[in-house]
Each structure stands twice: as C-alpha cells, then as structure tokens.
Write a structure and sequence with these properties.
Length: about 280
C-alpha cells in the first residue's frame, strides 16, 4: 500500500509593486522626492509689486527735488558770486545833501517778528558774512560803519541825513530827513561794531549776527553833501556743504526709487511671459 501524499501549501504570488520596492531598497537608491509645494498665489506677488511701484514714485519726487536743489545751489555759488564767493548788488550814485546816508533798520531775525530765538546758533551754522564797498564820487574821504540801530538813531538825531528805504535792481530810494548839519566826526564814536574810513574805495566786512542794525555812510570829516557808489554783498559758508549733502541724499533716494520701479516692471514682464 502506498503512503499517503502530504498536500503542498498553495503558492503565494508576490505583488510586482512590493517586489520592485524591495529591489529598489536593496539597491540603495534614494527615497522618492516629496511632492512640490503649491505655488505662491499670484495675488501676493502682485501686491508686493504694486507696493514697490507706489514707494518708488513717492520717493522719486523728493529724490529728484534734492538733486535739483543741490545742483542749483552749486551753480549759483559758482556763477552768481564774485571771486570771493559773495552775492553782490551794485548801487551807483547814492547821494544826499545831508551829513550822512543811513540804511533803514536792518532786522536780522529768523521769525520775522524781531525775536532772535535760536538765531545765534543758526547764524553761526550758516556762517553769513556781509561786505560793503564804498567809493566816494570825487576826492572826498569817506567813512562807512555799522552799529546798533538805536545808537545810530541817537547819533543822527536832529541832523539832516538821507535814509535808504528801498533797494530795487541797483537803485536806492532815499528820503531826506531835515535837520542841522552840525555833527561830531564819525570816527570819534565808539559804538561802531565795524567801520572803515579813508580816501578811495573802502571795504567794510561784518560777521552777521542777530539784532537791529543800521549802516551809515558819511564824509570822513562829517561835512554835508554825501555822494557815493556802493556795492553790497552777502556770503554764506554753508551753501557748498548743504548742496553736496542734497546731491548725495538725492542720488541715494533716486536710486532706491528707480530700483523699486524696476522691480515692479520686472514683475509685470514675468506675468506676461507664457510658461514653457
């Protein structure tokens, strides 16, 4: 009698996917890459580009303005000034039959109300200088001085003199103040903050400071009948540094503004370019 036959277990087929995964793992291949991140919404990029455009346009205006201001200041400094850096006004033929010609009160303030405030510090920073060239018409020696307006008023009280009330395009409007012609010689007075006298052209230079001031021109011997040619000039040592600062600041701001506008333009080109 034959021995009973033991049945074989049914064969189990290995799925192809499991086999290939096992083979891949055994071969040492890197794991599959994760799925790509979803694209950034187009609305976010557009918002950034619009913001860059607005910032660029807003910044471009002061940047160009600063460049224009700095350039104008440097050109004016180089073209409209004399060899010493003064902006000048020539006034020919100022004459009066009295003993002096005096300016109306010169108020050196910063608020337009006669208050000095922070004027000393700001005037020191502006470094403003005034210059007066005076030349007598004829052979008469001439005197020129600047003093506090109150001191000049006391000195000229009761005498005949000419008061300059307006300057317009090289012409001076002078009104005659009636009085006597007896007055002490100007060089004998001690209230002048700056003065000069002599024959020929005289130059008076003054470091501008706040207050009420008056400029007086006379014959050196205080005789009546004053006839002079005058050149008035102003100079500020702050013009060149301020102009250079404006140019540098304007260039930086303008460059940033242009970069922002270009960023916006490049974003527009990317949106218009079809994907390949």
């Amino acid at each position: 009698m034959d021995a009973p036959t033991t049945p074989l277990p049914p064969s189990v087929d290995t799925p192809p996917s499991a086999t290939s995964a096992a083979d891949t793992a055994s071969a040492g291949a890197p794991p599959p890459l994760p799925p790509p991140a979803p694209p950034t919404p187009a609305g976010g990029r557009r918002g950034r580009h619009i913001a860059a455009l607005i910032i660029g346009i807003v910044a471009l205006i002061p940047g160009v303005g600063a460049l224009a201001g700095g350039t104008t200041a440097l050109v004016a400094q180089g073209v409209a000034t004399d060899e010493d850096g003064y902006f000048v006004e020539v006034i020919d033929g100022i004459a009066d039959p009295g003993v002096a010609i005096a300016s109306d009160d010169l108020w050196v303030t910063l608020d337009g109300k006669g208050h000095d405030g922070d004027a000393p510090r700001i005037l020191e920073w502006l470094d403003v200088d005034a210059r007066l060239r005076v030349d007598a018409v004829g052979e008469q020696e001439v005197f020129a001085g600047i003093a506090r307006a109150s001191d000049v008023e006391r000195y000229l009280d009761g005498v005949e003199y000419g008061r300059i009330v307006e300057l317009d395009k090289g012409a001076a409007q002078v009104i005659n103040i009636a009085g006597s012609t007896a007055i002490a010689a100007p060089a004998e007075q001690d209230f002048w903050v700056e003065s000069t006298s002599g024959a020929g052209e005289q130059v008076l230079e003054w470091d501008v400071r706040p207050g009420r001031w008056a400029v007086v021109v006379m014959n050196a011997d205080a005789s009546p009948g004053v006839d002079v040619d005058v050149e008035a000039g102003l100079r500020s040592g702050a013009i060149t540094p301020v102009a250079i600062t404006l140019l540098i600041g304007g260039a930086l701001v303008t460059a940033g503004a242009v970069a922002a506008i270009v960023f916006r333009a490049r974003g527009d080109r990317r949106r218009r370019t079809p994907a390949t």
